[in-house]
Amino acid sequence: MKFIQYGPVMTAEPPVVCRGADLFVFALPAELRRLRDFCHSLFNEPTHGAVKCDPLGPWIVMIVGAIDRVSGANKDKPAVREKNVLVHVPVFVRTAQEDFPAVFSPYVWVDNPNSLTSGREVFGYAKTMGRITIDHPADPLCFELAVFGGNLNTDIWDWRESFLRIERGKAGAAPLFSIIDLVEGGNEVGDLLSKWADTGVRELYYKQFRSIDDGDPSRPGKACLTEIAAAEYVVFGEPKITPLGHQYKIHLDNLGSHPIRTELGLKAESVSWAYRLKTNFRLEHGCVLWTSR
To answer: For a Cys-Cys bond, which of 22, 53, 106, 275 suits 39, CB 3.0-4.6 Å?
Structure first.
């Protein structure tokens, strides 16, 4: 069916090209059972096993950064600048056609409405708005994320400051020889992380839209569209990967609107060494692996 453009231009046609990405990469330990249950509830169970997804290990990768220029395939449309926070779950995907490692991003925050809408509607990222602060970007001392939401018993939702706060600790000899050392060396998560930084990796999406006739509290929620899709990140140019000589303290909140610790089995406080990654990448045309229609 033809896409009809009307009203404000809020989405971009793939491929999406990201130039001048300056990303800070952290790794947080997670509870493997929680990750497995979460993946199964989104992929294995709804598809009755047509798409099977399992975490590669007890880790999530958190990326905080900025991109100078994000543009779609239509060169007549202006580009946008973007700050973002992404939470990647490294996974292994099995379908009847192929098996492949990928990243799945159940939490993504961006700071402009075009990145938000394109990411959600075109690809299926679970994107939402965030206010992202990078203190002293040339040599960051602190990263902070404010989110919009609250707990389920809160009368009015509003901006919540310091949902995520990452603070630089004392300098030290970082035990990092390559980016895989963020996750304790050579394992499947480390191999995927290395490939993601050097050449690119596939992203897995759970794309859904709530049905307009939903809202009956006596029955489960309804979706008018559910798709499981995948697309390829492709790195171009020469990426620059630099280990940072400080350990970072990471504080992560948990809200009813953003139940990240509950869903992924994360701690409120953790520490991580970090890498700085300067790169350019494309997010290519994707494909639908399964649809409910």
So the answer is: 53
Distance, CA of 58 to CA of 217 (rounded, Å):
35
Q: Which amino acid is at 199?
A: T
CA nearest 196: which of 125, 95, 279? 279
pLDDT band at 59 (very low <50, low <70, confident <90, very high): very high
Q: How far apart are CA 190 and CA 259, in angstroms?
A: 26
Q: How far apart are the first and last CA of the chain?
A: 14
Q: Using 50, 70 and 90 to split pLDDT, how confident is the model at 74?
A: confident
- In this structure, the number of other CB atoms found within 10 A of the CB of residue 73 comes to 12
137-194 pLDDT per residue, tens: 888 899 999 999 999 898 999 999 999 999 999 887 767 777 888 887 768 998 999 9
Cis before 58? omega within 30: no
Backbone φ and ψ for 262, nearest 5 degrees, come out as -65, -45
Say what the pTM is.
0.95
Question: Reduced to 3 states, what is the DSSP secondary structure of residue 253?
Answer: coil
Amino acid sitting at position 91: V
Count the neighbouring beta carbons within 10 Å of the beta carbon of residue 270.
Answer: 17
List of E strands, the chain: 16-29, 52-55, 59-71, 80-94, 99-110, 127-135, 142-149, 158-171, 202-210, 223-243, 246-252, 269-272, 275-283, 287-291
Confidence category of residue 214, pLDDT binned at 50, 70, 90: confident
Burial class (CB in 10 A: 0-12, 13-18, 19+), 148: middle
Delineate the domains of the chain, giving CATH numbers in brackets. 16-140+174-247+275-291 (2.40.400)
